[in-house]
Amino acid sequence: MTPFFLVYLFSENPVDKQIALGIFIVAAITDWYDGYVARRWGFITRWGKFLDPLADKILTSAAFISFIYIGYAEEWMVWVIVIRDFLMTGLRGYGEYKGKTIDTSGFAKTKTFFQLVVIYLFLVNYIVRTSADLNARFGWFFDFTATPPIMFWMMVITTLFTAMTGMMYLSANKAIILGLFTGGDDGRTTEE
What we know:
By secondary structure, the chain is an all-alpha fold.
């Protein structure tokens, strides 16, 4: 759904931008539901453990990268987030391939939640600002909640928190990660 999200988001038609938000929400809900069903009924597979977080990272990364082009985020912030998320997803996927499960911790889940809050706020702000009708009705709200300085600091906090959880992940799983690439096996699984 990510390509459709991007096509509609960058359309000149304000209604298409609203459709893009709907696509993003549906993609996020179905991603969550898929994971819920897999855990609830035991349909968890190695491929699913790799593809589910990868699909999530593709969707959120596309949104963050779009913010560069919209002018809502600086490139360095977005690339720190995107590279960290894909690096950790790749490591977890490689761990699954090698039979080492590395679970996600509360910090990583909080990071993902914060990223989604930023994405939704920025997307709704963009949609409101690019529609004369919506801006006339709701623009006042974003005059207080999504000013350029506030958005900048939200991105700084998101970037730093994302980088910090990545460093915590690497530190906590150093032995397992080294074992994956050197053939060693310490017999442990730890959390991100």
